[in-house]
Design a protein that fits this description.
Elements lengths: L1 H4 L1 H21 L2 E7 L2 E6 L2 H17 L14 E4 L5 E3 L2 E3 L1 H9 L7 E4 L1 H6 L2 H4 L10
Helix pairs in contact: 2-3
Length: about 140
């Protein structure tokens, strides 16, 4: 994106999107912890809130006007959700759930939300019915 749009335009586009996504996080009782370039780390009190936020984030991006510069025609979110106890130090989170979500990052595809088995176990029946099993990670 930076190569095709140039540093300023790509950064502006990403910052606008991260701001909009942070608003969605707050709407569903979450907190935006920090950003890593074009990534946003969030924390939620419940798996259902995290899943509703993820769905709303995808809808928000889908509703945005398409980006049509060079080879870029859409921005696809890669969302990973894991559940468990974390340790917070300032604006950093540590723990197995954080590490697991980071590992899932390499498996997510654009426009997709991946969740862990522990997150599935915390979901309400309504949200569980909206998931499908795609495999176990080693």
């Amino acid at each position: 994106m930076y190569e095709l749009l140039g540093d300023d335009q790509a950064r502006r586009l990403i910052m606008e999107l991260l701001s909009d996504l942070s608003n969605v996080v707050r709407k569903f009782n979450g907190e935006s912890i920090r950003t890593y370039g074009d990534e946003l780390m969030c924390a939620f009190g419940s798996a259902d809130d995290a899943m509703m936020a993820a769905a709303s984030m995808h809808q928000l991006v889908d509703a945005r006007p398409p980006v049509r510069w060079g080879e870029i025609d859409a921005i696809g979110l890669y969302i990973r959700v894991d559940s468990g106890t974390v340790i917070r130090v300032g604006n950093k989170l540590f723990g197995d759930a954080v590490n697991s979500a980071a590992k899932m990052k390499t498996l997510a595809k654009p426009f997709q939300t991946l969740i862990s088995e522990s997150t599935l176990n915390f979901l309400s029946d309504r949200h569980k019915s909206m998931t499908r099993f795609i495999g176990k990670l080693p």
